[in-house]
Amino acid sequence: MSPIRAPRPVRSGRAFTRPKRSDAHRVGSPAVREATGRTPAAGPAAASGPAAASGPALPRAPWPDLAPLVDGTPPGRLPHKQARLWSLVLRARRVPHRVRNLPGGYTIQTPQRFARQAVEEILLYHKENLTPHPDIPLTDPQERVRPTVAAMLALCAFYSLTQRPWPGLGSYPQYWHSVGVADASAMLDGQLWRAATALTLHADAAHLASNVVIGGAFLILLARRAGSGTAWLLAVLAGTLGNLLNALAHLAMNGGHLSVGFSTAVFGAAGALAGLKAASGDGDFRPGAMVGRNMGRGWLPPVAAGLALVASLGTAGDNTDIGAHVFGLLAGLGLGGLAGRMALRLGRPDEWAHGRCNDAYGVAAALIPALAWAWGWLAR
């Protein structure tokens, strides 16, 4: 059996209980605030309640669109590629922003107090990261193809006219060649029309076909950047000047020279392409686009491409006039560079005077050989 323990004696006195605080002693109560002179700190609890809910809400600061501030693009019209680029620039510079995809394009927005910094960072990036080969705005496909195709068909029709005898019209092939061939001695004696008329004559059908195919390709490319009228005027002027320079070069070597063919103008068109690229650097012909840029920074690649073209296409065949090809290319380089410099100040050539200049240039390109033939026949 286990022993029985005696019960503990109970202490006498009252049990201890914690006094309850009244509402008058609670922190934040009116009595405490009145005694201490303190007011409760504002916080989430202070903002809750019917009184806070009924008060006016503070207006949120606007987030402006950066596109109109940077380059004048309408709000919400940024291309996806440009929006990604700008966002990358702003993230690298730790500028807060947001990108929104809208039905008409993209928008990049930033808080008002960061808007100026964001615009400066984007402009600085474009100034320091120029590429010599950005996208070049092109003209309408129909505008650049149809006039060139029509002109090449006219060149083929003229070949048919000059290669067949027409007794009723008094037209014989030998007459056309005697008047229009590029004779170096005759040209320096004053018969300057031959520099232009020789562009429209060809030795045979294969000679014509090669010039039509290759020349049409180059003229279409040139028309995409300068307009069809401007492209043809540059090609005809470069071909005419190339024939003159070729005649001077052959006479300087004490030798006569005869040549025909549109190939001098074809290489003139190739040179004009290189000249446009060399003058603008990046091919952007918007007015003022080259302000603060290093103009002509991309001249070497297009010039080298033109010389490589002469080496590959302009030296084949026993009857190839290498001098005419080289001088046509050099003349095109000069004329294209001049046109490019003018375009940097005035805008795209096919947009001068709302396109009327481009039409006038096309008419001038057709009149140069036509008037040259008229001069030759009258002087005969």
Structure in words:
- The structure is a single chain.
- This protein has 380 residues and is mainly alpha-helical.
- The chain has two domains: 67-128, Hypothetical protein rpa1041 (Alpha-Beta Plaits, 2-Layer Sandwich), CATH 3.30.70; 141-379, Up-down Bundle (Rhomboid-like fold).
- The chain is built from 16 helices and four strands.
- It has helices at 30-36, 44-47, 50-53, 67-70, 80-92, 115-128, 141-163, 173-180, 184-188, 194-197, 205-226, 228-252, 263-280, 300-313, 322-346, 356-379; strands at 98-102, 105-109, 182-183, 258-259.
- It has a two-stranded antiparallel ribbon. A two-stranded antiparallel ribbon has the order 3-4.
- The radius of gyration is 41 Å and the shape is elongated.
- It starts with 29 loop residues before the first helix and ends with a helix.
- Residues 12-17, 22-28, 31-54, 132-139 and 282-296 have low confidence and may be disordered.
